[in-house]
Amino acid sequence: MDFLRNLFSQTLGLGTQKERLLDDLSLEGVARYMLSERCHRVICLVGAGISTSAGIPDFRSPSTGLYANLQKYHLPYPEAIFEIGYFKKHPEPFFALAKELYPGQFKPTLCHYFIRLLKEKGLLVRCYTQNIDTLERVAGLEPEDLVEAHGTFYTSHCISPLCRREYTLSWMKEKIFSEVTPKCEKCQSVVKPDIVFFGENLPARFFSCIQSDFLKVDLLIIMGTSLQGRGLAG
């Protein structure tokens, strides 16, 4: 998050005396700016808050958040379910949770369709999402429109560094809903969806896109995230 804050400060000129772009710091002021001739390139940065109205819990809300409702998995601490070290030793809790949250059971929200509208209007540079629910794709965004900063369920890979065989969404879904721990057909190591666990690096696409995208942005819209968390807890 410090990397993002520094990048925003440098590329967007935060903290410097620049031309005032909004006539009013409100939704109406943003809307007027977006309709003006000065706004041609928009980036969206979104988190779990845009999917809660679809029925997907966020992570940290008291009593209703995901981390507050993991007692049945008997974890040493809630975040362990998304830690790569714990997953390699005990993958079962993650896959049990994945069955409850699996993509395809939820529908996009107005926020997701708003981002698609930006694309249709030719305004969207990119949508950077912290979410792993794939609802941006369901709403109509293409892979090139997205940077899935915390990865995606869309593909999966064997966790063995000597194998790394890729598996499809439908293959993983069949395993999860059969309540079978997914094992590689080649080497029998565990197969993990391509989501970023604590202890893993962000996808290379995140770093390759962010440097160029933010040099040509007129408006950054942040929705559903405080930018305070780290990893999947964001």
TrEMBL record:
GO process annotations (BP): regulation of developmental process; regulation of multicellular organismal process
Record-listed Zn(2+) binding positions: 158, 163, 184, 187
Enzyme nomenclature, EC number: 2.3.1.286
Classification via PROSITE patterns: SIRTUIN
Entry's Gene Ontology cellular component terms: myelin sheath; nucleus
Subcellular location: Myelin membrane; Nucleus
Pfam family, one: SIR2
Signal peptide: none
Alphabetically ordered keywords of this record: Metal-binding, NAD, Nucleus, Transferase, Zinc
Enzyme active site: 150 (proton acceptor)
Reactions catalysed, as given in the entry: N(6)-hexadecanoyl-L-lysyl-[protein] + NAD(+) + H2O = 2''-O-hexadecanoyl-ADP-D-ribose + nicotinamide + L-lysyl-[protein]; N(6)-tetradecanoyl-L-lysyl-[protein] + NAD(+) + H2O = 2''-O-tetradecanoyl-ADP-D-ribose + nicotinamide + L-lysyl-[protein]
InterPro entries on file: DHS-like_NAD/FAD-binding_dom (IPR029035), NAD-dep_sirtuin_deacylases (IPR050134), Sirtuin (IPR003000), Sirtuin_cat_small_dom_sf (IPR026591), Ssirtuin_cat_dom (IPR026590)
Residue stretches making up the Deacetylase sirtuin-type domain: 20-234
UniProt-recorded Gene Ontology molecular function terms: histone deacetylase activity, NAD-dependent; metal ion binding; NAD+ binding
Family: Belongs to the sirtuin family. Class I subfamily.
Descriptive protein name: NAD-dependent protein deacetylase sirtuin-2
Native organism: Rhinolophus ferrumequinum
Lineage, opening ranks: Eukaryota, Metazoa, Chordata, Craniata, Vertebrata
Gene: SIRT2
